[in-house]
Amino acid sequence: MSQVDCRTLCFSIFYYKTQKYLLTTDIRVGLLYRLTQLGILLYLLWWVFLEQKSYQTIDNSIESSVISKIKGTSYRNSSDSGNNFWDSTDFVLPSLGENVFFIITNLIMTPNQRQTTCAESPKNPNAQCSQDSDCPKGKSVIRGNGVMTGNCLIAGGDGSGTCEIFAWCPLENSPHSKKIVLENAENFTIYVKNHIRFSKFNISKTNLREAQSKSYLKSCRFGPDSMDCPIFRVGNLVNYSGNNFQAMAKDGGVIEIQMHWDCNLDFTTVCKLHYSFHRLDNSNSVSGGYNFRFARYYQDANGVELRKLMKVYGIRFDVLHLILASISADWIIPCSLRDTVISLCFSCILHHHGCHGTALHQNPSCVEV
Ligand SMILES: Nc1ncnc2c1ncn2[C@@H]1O[C@H](COP(=O)(O)OP(=O)(O)OP(=O)(O)O)[C@@H](O)[C@H]1O
Protein backbone atom coordinates (compact mmCIF):
# COMPACT_ATOMS: atom_id res chain seq x y z
CA MET A 1 0.00 0.00 0.00
CA SER A 2 1.37 3.39 -0.93
CA GLN A 3 2.08 6.03 1.70
CA VAL A 4 -0.74 8.29 0.40
CA ASP A 5 -3.34 5.44 0.58
CA CYS A 6 -2.33 4.66 4.12
CA ARG A 7 -2.65 8.29 5.24
CA THR A 8 -6.07 8.61 3.57
CA LEU A 9 -7.29 5.46 5.31
CA CYS A 10 -5.95 6.53 8.70
CA PHE A 11 -7.41 10.03 8.52
CA SER A 12 -10.77 8.92 7.10
CA ILE A 13 -11.90 7.78 10.51
CA PHE A 14 -11.83 11.42 11.66
CA TYR A 15 -13.98 12.63 8.74
CA TYR A 16 -17.49 13.83 9.49
CA LYS A 17 -20.32 13.37 7.03
CA THR A 18 -23.55 15.40 6.92
CA GLN A 19 -26.81 14.32 5.32
CA LYS A 20 -27.93 15.76 2.04
CA TYR A 21 -31.68 16.27 1.62
CA LEU A 22 -33.55 16.09 -1.61
CA LEU A 23 -36.96 17.65 -1.96
CA THR A 24 -39.18 16.39 -4.72
CA THR A 25 -42.37 18.23 -5.55
CA ASP A 26 -43.78 15.31 -7.53
CA ILE A 27 -47.18 14.70 -6.00
CA ARG A 28 -47.09 10.95 -6.80
CA VAL A 29 -43.87 10.48 -4.84
CA GLY A 30 -45.27 12.61 -2.00
CA LEU A 31 -48.47 10.63 -1.94
CA LEU A 32 -46.60 7.34 -1.91
CA TYR A 33 -44.43 8.62 0.94
CA ARG A 34 -47.45 9.63 3.03
CA LEU A 35 -49.26 6.36 2.28
CA THR A 36 -46.20 4.39 3.40
CA GLN A 37 -46.03 6.44 6.59
CA LEU A 38 -49.76 5.91 7.15
CA GLY A 39 -49.36 2.16 6.59
CA ILE A 40 -46.56 1.92 9.14
CA LEU A 41 -48.54 4.03 11.59
CA LEU A 42 -51.66 1.89 11.18
CA TYR A 43 -49.59 -1.27 11.50
CA LEU A 44 -48.09 0.01 14.77
CA LEU A 45 -51.36 1.30 16.22
CA TRP A 46 -53.73 -1.42 15.15
CA TRP A 47 -51.71 -4.64 14.94
CA VAL A 48 -48.76 -4.05 17.29
CA PHE A 49 -50.63 -2.10 19.99
CA LEU A 50 -54.31 -3.10 19.86
CA GLU A 51 -54.25 -6.64 18.49
CA GLN A 52 -50.97 -8.11 19.68
CA LYS A 53 -50.42 -5.82 22.69
CA SER A 54 -46.76 -6.20 21.81
CA TYR A 55 -45.83 -3.34 24.07
CA GLN A 56 -46.65 -5.69 26.96
CA THR A 57 -44.48 -8.37 28.42
CA ILE A 58 -45.41 -11.55 30.27
CA ASP A 59 -44.34 -11.82 33.89
CA ASN A 60 -43.21 -15.35 34.68
CA SER A 61 -42.14 -14.69 38.27
CA ILE A 62 -45.56 -15.50 39.72
CA GLU A 63 -46.04 -17.08 43.13
CA SER A 64 -49.27 -18.80 44.02
CA SER A 65 -50.83 -20.72 46.86
CA VAL A 66 -54.05 -22.73 47.03
CA ILE A 67 -55.81 -23.49 50.31
CA SER A 68 -58.91 -25.65 50.45
CA LYS A 69 -61.47 -26.33 53.14
CA ILE A 70 -64.30 -28.83 52.88
CA LYS A 71 -67.47 -28.86 54.95
CA GLY A 72 -70.41 -31.21 55.27
CA THR A 73 -71.76 -34.17 57.22
CA SER A 74 -73.17 -37.52 56.27
CA TYR A 75 -75.15 -40.06 58.30
CA ARG A 76 -76.03 -43.63 57.43
CA ASN A 77 -77.80 -46.27 59.44
CA SER A 78 -77.24 -49.63 57.80
CA SER A 79 -77.94 -53.18 59.01
CA ASP A 80 -74.39 -54.41 58.30
CA SER A 81 -72.26 -51.54 59.66
CA GLY A 82 -74.65 -49.89 62.13
CA ASN A 83 -74.71 -46.13 62.69
CA ASN A 84 -72.17 -44.19 60.71
CA PHE A 85 -71.72 -40.47 61.05
CA TRP A 86 -69.06 -38.65 59.04
CA ASP A 87 -67.84 -35.09 59.11
CA SER A 88 -65.09 -33.35 57.13
CA THR A 89 -62.36 -34.56 59.51
CA ASP A 90 -63.31 -38.13 58.61
CA PHE A 91 -63.88 -37.90 54.88
CA VAL A 92 -61.21 -35.43 53.67
CA LEU A 93 -57.68 -36.63 53.04
CA PRO A 94 -55.24 -35.10 53.70
CA SER A 95 -56.66 -32.65 56.21
CA LEU A 96 -53.95 -30.05 55.44
CA GLY A 97 -56.12 -28.25 52.90
CA GLU A 98 -53.81 -28.34 49.92
CA ASN A 99 -54.38 -27.97 46.20
CA VAL A 100 -54.91 -31.73 45.86
CA PHE A 101 -57.47 -33.28 48.20
CA PHE A 102 -59.59 -36.37 48.31
CA ILE A 103 -63.19 -36.66 49.45
CA ILE A 104 -64.32 -40.16 50.42
CA THR A 105 -67.68 -41.04 48.88
CA ASN A 106 -67.76 -44.80 49.31
CA LEU A 107 -65.81 -47.39 51.30
CA ILE A 108 -65.37 -51.00 52.40
CA MET A 109 -64.62 -51.09 56.10
CA THR A 110 -63.04 -54.14 57.80
CA PRO A 111 -62.77 -53.49 61.55
CA ASN A 112 -60.83 -55.41 64.23
CA GLN A 113 -58.16 -56.97 62.06
CA ARG A 114 -55.21 -58.45 63.95
CA GLN A 115 -52.12 -60.42 62.98
CA THR A 116 -53.08 -64.09 63.27
CA THR A 117 -53.89 -67.11 61.09
CA CYS A 118 -56.97 -67.56 58.90
CA ALA A 119 -57.94 -69.08 55.57
CA GLU A 120 -56.83 -67.27 52.41
CA SER A 121 -59.65 -66.05 50.17
CA PRO A 122 -61.20 -69.15 48.51
CA LYS A 123 -61.54 -67.09 45.33
CA ASN A 124 -57.75 -66.97 44.94
CA PRO A 125 -56.72 -69.91 42.68
CA ASN A 126 -53.14 -69.73 44.05
CA ALA A 127 -54.39 -70.69 47.52
CA GLN A 128 -56.43 -73.74 46.57
CA CYS A 129 -55.14 -77.03 48.03
CA SER A 130 -55.99 -80.66 48.70
CA GLN A 131 -53.11 -81.47 51.08
CA ASP A 132 -50.65 -79.58 53.33
CA SER A 133 -47.80 -79.91 50.84
CA ASP A 134 -49.79 -77.63 48.47
CA CYS A 135 -49.24 -74.77 50.98
CA PRO A 136 -45.45 -74.47 51.49
CA LYS A 137 -44.75 -72.81 54.84
CA GLY A 138 -43.39 -69.24 54.68
CA LYS A 139 -44.31 -68.70 51.01
CA SER A 140 -46.43 -65.68 50.08
CA VAL A 141 -49.65 -66.38 48.22
CA ILE A 142 -49.46 -64.83 44.76
CA ARG A 143 -51.98 -61.97 44.62
CA GLY A 144 -53.01 -63.00 48.13
CA ASN A 145 -53.15 -61.47 51.58
CA GLY A 146 -50.51 -63.29 53.61
CA VAL A 147 -47.85 -65.95 54.10
CA MET A 148 -48.74 -69.69 54.07
CA THR A 149 -48.45 -71.59 57.35
CA GLY A 150 -48.09 -75.05 55.75
CA ASN A 151 -51.69 -76.13 56.57
CA CYS A 152 -54.38 -76.86 54.04
CA LEU A 153 -57.80 -76.14 55.55
CA ILE A 154 -60.29 -78.59 54.08
CA ALA A 155 -63.77 -77.11 54.34
CA GLY A 156 -65.94 -79.11 51.92
CA GLY A 157 -66.47 -82.84 51.75
CA ASP A 158 -65.05 -82.89 48.19
CA GLY A 159 -61.46 -82.70 49.50
CA SER A 160 -60.87 -79.20 48.11
CA GLY A 161 -59.47 -76.71 50.57
CA THR A 162 -57.80 -73.32 51.01
CA CYS A 163 -54.32 -72.67 52.36
CA GLU A 164 -54.08 -71.20 55.81
CA ILE A 165 -52.17 -67.92 55.96
CA PHE A 166 -50.63 -65.65 58.59
CA ALA A 167 -52.03 -62.20 57.88
CA TRP A 168 -54.22 -59.36 59.12
CA CYS A 169 -57.33 -61.43 59.83
CA PRO A 170 -60.24 -61.41 59.17
CA LEU A 171 -59.51 -60.61 55.52
CA GLU A 172 -61.01 -57.59 53.82
CA ASN A 173 -64.78 -57.66 53.47
CA SER A 174 -66.33 -58.34 50.08
CA PRO A 175 -66.92 -55.48 47.59
CA HIS A 176 -69.23 -52.64 48.46
CA SER A 177 -72.89 -52.53 47.66
CA LYS A 178 -74.30 -50.47 44.81
CA LYS A 179 -75.47 -47.81 47.29
CA ILE A 180 -72.76 -45.32 48.17
CA VAL A 181 -71.85 -45.03 51.85
CA LEU A 182 -71.50 -41.25 52.13
CA GLU A 183 -74.89 -40.48 50.64
CA ASN A 184 -74.73 -36.77 51.40
CA ALA A 185 -71.29 -36.24 49.78
CA GLU A 186 -73.07 -34.53 46.90
CA ASN A 187 -73.94 -31.63 49.21
CA PHE A 188 -70.47 -31.15 50.71
CA THR A 189 -68.97 -27.76 49.98
CA ILE A 190 -65.42 -26.91 48.98
CA TYR A 191 -63.91 -23.53 49.70
CA VAL A 192 -60.93 -22.78 47.46
CA LYS A 193 -58.74 -19.83 48.40
CA ASN A 194 -56.16 -18.83 45.83
CA HIS A 195 -53.60 -16.11 46.36
CA ILE A 196 -51.31 -15.05 43.56
CA ARG A 197 -48.41 -12.62 43.74
CA PHE A 198 -46.46 -10.94 40.99
CA SER A 199 -43.21 -10.65 42.84
CA LYS A 200 -41.55 -8.49 40.17
CA PHE A 201 -44.16 -5.76 40.67
CA ASN A 202 -45.13 -6.56 44.27
CA ILE A 203 -48.81 -6.97 43.34
CA SER A 204 -51.05 -9.55 45.07
CA LYS A 205 -54.47 -10.83 44.07
CA THR A 206 -56.93 -13.30 45.55
CA ASN A 207 -60.02 -15.06 44.21
CA LEU A 208 -61.98 -13.54 47.07
CA ARG A 209 -63.15 -10.02 46.39
CA GLU A 210 -62.39 -7.46 49.09
CA ALA A 211 -66.09 -6.68 49.51
CA GLN A 212 -67.04 -10.29 50.24
CA SER A 213 -67.76 -10.78 53.93
CA LYS A 214 -67.76 -13.93 56.06
CA SER A 215 -71.56 -14.02 56.03
CA TYR A 216 -71.54 -13.88 52.21
CA LEU A 217 -69.14 -16.83 52.19
CA LYS A 218 -71.42 -18.79 54.49
CA SER A 219 -74.35 -18.51 52.10
CA CYS A 220 -72.92 -18.17 48.60
CA ARG A 221 -72.40 -21.08 46.18
CA PHE A 222 -70.57 -20.96 42.88
CA GLY A 223 -73.00 -21.08 39.95
CA PRO A 224 -74.08 -19.23 36.81
CA ASP A 225 -75.46 -16.40 38.97
CA SER A 226 -72.50 -16.13 41.34
CA MET A 227 -69.37 -16.85 39.35
CA ASP A 228 -67.16 -15.03 41.85
CA CYS A 229 -68.17 -17.17 44.85
CA PRO A 230 -65.22 -19.41 45.81
CA ILE A 231 -67.42 -22.05 47.48
CA PHE A 232 -68.41 -25.01 45.32
CA ARG A 233 -71.02 -27.72 45.94
CA VAL A 234 -69.42 -31.11 45.18
CA GLY A 235 -72.43 -32.38 43.18
CA ASN A 236 -72.39 -29.25 41.00
CA LEU A 237 -68.66 -29.56 40.34
CA VAL A 238 -69.16 -33.11 39.09
CA ASN A 239 -72.04 -31.93 36.89
CA TYR A 240 -70.01 -29.03 35.48
CA SER A 241 -67.34 -31.55 34.47
CA GLY A 242 -69.99 -33.40 32.47
CA ASN A 243 -70.43 -36.37 34.86
CA ASN A 244 -73.08 -37.85 37.07
CA PHE A 245 -72.38 -37.69 40.79
CA GLN A 246 -73.98 -41.03 41.80
CA ALA A 247 -72.03 -42.91 39.10
CA MET A 248 -68.76 -41.22 39.99
CA ALA A 249 -69.17 -41.54 43.76
CA LYS A 250 -69.42 -45.34 43.62
CA ASP A 251 -66.01 -46.01 42.05
CA GLY A 252 -64.34 -42.63 42.44
CA GLY A 253 -62.50 -40.42 39.97
CA VAL A 254 -60.35 -37.35 39.52
CA ILE A 255 -61.66 -33.86 38.79
CA GLU A 256 -59.58 -30.86 37.90
CA ILE A 257 -60.65 -27.42 39.09
CA GLN A 258 -58.87 -25.09 36.76
CA MET A 259 -58.50 -21.44 37.68
CA HIS A 260 -57.58 -19.31 34.73
CA TRP A 261 -56.29 -15.90 35.69
CA ASP A 262 -55.90 -13.27 33.00
CA CYS A 263 -54.32 -10.18 34.50
CA ASN A 264 -53.54 -6.89 32.86
CA LEU A 265 -51.16 -5.07 35.17
CA ASP A 266 -51.10 -1.82 33.21
CA PHE A 267 -52.30 1.28 35.06
CA THR A 268 -54.65 -0.47 37.53
CA THR A 269 -54.37 -4.21 38.06
CA VAL A 270 -57.36 -5.88 36.43
CA CYS A 271 -57.63 -9.66 36.74
CA LYS A 272 -60.32 -11.79 35.16
CA LEU A 273 -60.77 -15.18 36.84
CA HIS A 274 -62.46 -18.00 35.00
CA TYR A 275 -63.11 -21.47 36.47
CA SER A 276 -63.41 -24.65 34.43
CA PHE A 277 -63.88 -28.27 35.51
CA HIS A 278 -62.71 -31.45 33.81
CA ARG A 279 -62.66 -35.14 34.69
CA LEU A 280 -59.08 -36.38 34.44
CA ASP A 281 -59.38 -40.16 34.93
CA ASN A 282 -60.73 -42.41 32.23
CA SER A 283 -64.02 -43.74 33.57
CA ASN A 284 -64.44 -46.14 30.64
CA SER A 285 -61.18 -48.04 31.14
CA VAL A 286 -61.11 -51.54 32.74
CA SER A 287 -59.60 -50.03 35.85
CA GLY A 288 -61.59 -46.80 35.98
CA GLY A 289 -62.27 -44.84 39.13
CA TYR A 290 -60.03 -43.99 42.05
CA ASN A 291 -59.51 -45.95 45.27
CA PHE A 292 -56.84 -46.80 47.79
CA ARG A 293 -56.52 -48.47 51.21
CA PHE A 294 -55.44 -47.16 54.57
CA ALA A 295 -55.81 -48.32 58.17
CA ARG A 296 -56.36 -46.85 61.61
CA TYR A 297 -54.47 -48.67 64.37
CA TYR A 298 -55.48 -49.16 68.01
CA GLN A 299 -55.07 -51.64 70.86
CA ASP A 300 -57.60 -53.84 72.62
CA ALA A 301 -57.90 -54.13 76.41
CA ASN A 302 -55.08 -56.75 76.44
CA GLY A 303 -52.69 -54.50 74.53
CA VAL A 304 -53.00 -56.47 71.25
CA GLU A 305 -52.61 -54.26 68.21
CA LEU A 306 -55.71 -54.11 66.01
CA ARG A 307 -56.52 -52.11 62.93
CA LYS A 308 -59.54 -50.92 61.00
CA LEU A 309 -58.84 -51.40 57.30
CA MET A 310 -60.57 -49.07 54.87
CA LYS A 311 -60.66 -49.35 51.12
CA VAL A 312 -61.91 -45.93 50.14
CA TYR A 313 -63.43 -44.74 46.89
CA GLY A 314 -63.83 -41.07 46.25
CA ILE A 315 -63.17 -38.00 44.21
CA ARG A 316 -59.74 -36.46 44.08
CA PHE A 317 -59.79 -32.78 43.23
CA ASP A 318 -56.72 -31.21 41.64
CA VAL A 319 -56.76 -27.42 41.79
CA LEU A 320 -54.61 -26.08 38.99
CA HIS A 321 -54.15 -22.53 37.87
CA LEU A 322 -53.08 -20.91 34.67
CA ILE A 323 -51.91 -17.36 35.09
CA LEU A 324 -51.51 -15.04 32.19
CA ALA A 325 -50.13 -11.70 33.26
CA SER A 326 -49.31 -8.96 30.83
CA ILE A 327 -47.70 -5.68 31.65
CA SER A 328 -46.18 -2.80 29.71
CA ALA A 329 -42.64 -3.58 28.81
CA ASP A 330 -39.85 -1.06 28.90
CA TRP A 331 -40.32 -0.96 25.20
CA ILE A 332 -38.60 1.17 22.63
CA ILE A 333 -40.09 1.50 19.20
CA PRO A 334 -37.22 0.58 16.94
CA CYS A 335 -37.10 4.10 15.47
CA SER A 336 -33.76 3.66 13.83
CA LEU A 337 -35.00 0.53 12.08
CA ARG A 338 -38.18 2.29 10.95
CA ASP A 339 -36.21 5.28 9.60
CA THR A 340 -33.78 3.04 7.82
CA VAL A 341 -36.65 1.19 6.12
CA ILE A 342 -38.30 4.47 5.06
CA SER A 343 -35.10 6.03 3.80
CA LEU A 344 -34.15 2.86 1.92
CA CYS A 345 -37.54 2.75 0.25
CA PHE A 346 -37.36 6.37 -0.73
CA SER A 347 -33.86 6.25 -2.08
CA CYS A 348 -35.12 3.49 -4.34
CA ILE A 349 -38.12 5.58 -5.39
CA LEU A 350 -36.01 8.66 -6.00
CA HIS A 351 -33.47 6.61 -7.88
CA HIS A 352 -36.24 5.24 -10.04
CA HIS A 353 -37.58 8.76 -10.50
CA GLY A 354 -34.22 10.04 -11.75
CA CYS A 355 -33.36 12.03 -8.58
CA HIS A 356 -29.86 10.71 -8.20
CA GLY A 357 -26.35 11.51 -9.29
CA THR A 358 -26.12 13.49 -12.50
CA ALA A 359 -29.82 12.88 -13.31
CA LEU A 360 -30.68 15.16 -10.36
CA HIS A 361 -29.94 18.34 -12.26
CA GLN A 362 -31.83 17.23 -15.36
CA ASN A 363 -35.09 16.52 -13.47
CA PRO A 364 -36.99 19.70 -12.53
CA SER A 365 -39.04 17.90 -9.85
CA CYS A 366 -35.87 17.16 -7.83
CA VAL A 367 -34.70 20.05 -5.69
CA GLU A 368 -31.51 20.00 -3.69
CA VAL A 369 -31.91 21.52 -0.16
N1 LIG B 1 -66.27 -25.49 52.67
C1 LIG B 1 -66.96 -24.45 53.10
N2 LIG B 1 -68.27 -24.37 52.86
C2 LIG B 1 -69.00 -23.34 53.28
N3 LIG B 1 -68.50 -22.31 54.00
C3 LIG B 1 -67.21 -22.34 54.30
C4 LIG B 1 -66.37 -23.41 53.86
N4 LIG B 1 -65.12 -23.17 54.30
C5 LIG B 1 -65.18 -22.01 54.97
N5 LIG B 1 -66.42 -21.52 54.96
C6 LIG B 1 -66.87 -20.27 55.59
O1 LIG B 1 -66.15 -19.19 55.00
C7 LIG B 1 -65.80 -18.26 55.98
C8 LIG B 1 -64.31 -18.03 55.94
O2 LIG B 1 -63.65 -19.24 56.20
P1 LIG B 1 -62.27 -19.25 57.01
O3 LIG B 1 -61.70 -20.59 56.86
O4 LIG B 1 -61.47 -18.11 56.51
O5 LIG B 1 -62.70 -18.91 58.47
P2 LIG B 1 -62.87 -19.83 59.77
O6 LIG B 1 -63.45 -18.98 60.84
O7 LIG B 1 -61.62 -20.53 60.09
O8 LIG B 1 -63.97 -20.88 59.29
P3 LIG B 1 -64.53 -22.16 60.06
O9 LIG B 1 -64.13 -22.12 61.49
O10 LIG B 1 -66.02 -22.07 59.88
O11 LIG B 1 -63.97 -23.34 59.36
C9 LIG B 1 -66.28 -18.81 57.32
O12 LIG B 1 -67.50 -18.19 57.60
C10 LIG B 1 -66.50 -20.27 57.06
O13 LIG B 1 -67.52 -20.82 57.85
TrEMBL record:
Coiled coil: none annotated. It is a multi-pass membrane protein. It comes from the Eukaryota. Gene3D superfamilies: atp-gated p2x4 ion channel, atp-gated p2x4 ion channel domain. Disulfide bonds join 118-169, 129-152, 135-163, 220-229, 263-271. GO terms for cellular component: plasma membrane; postsynapse. Its main location: membrane. It is found in: Cell membrane; Membrane. Glycans are attached at residue 187. One of its GO terms (molecular function) is ATP binding. The chain crosses the membrane at residues 31-50. It catalyses: Ca(2+)(in) = Ca(2+)(out). One of its GO terms (biological process) is calcium ion transmembrane transport. Keywords: ATP-binding, Cell membrane, Disulfide bond, Glycoprotein, Ion channel, Ion transport, Ligand-gated ion channel, Membrane, Nucleotide-binding, Receptor, Transmembrane, Transmembrane helix, Transport. ATP binds at residues 69-71, 189, 291-293, 311. Belongs to the P2X receptor family. Receptor for ATP that acts as a ligand-gated ion channel. This is P2X purinoceptor. It comes from Monodelphis domestica (Gray short-tailed opossum).
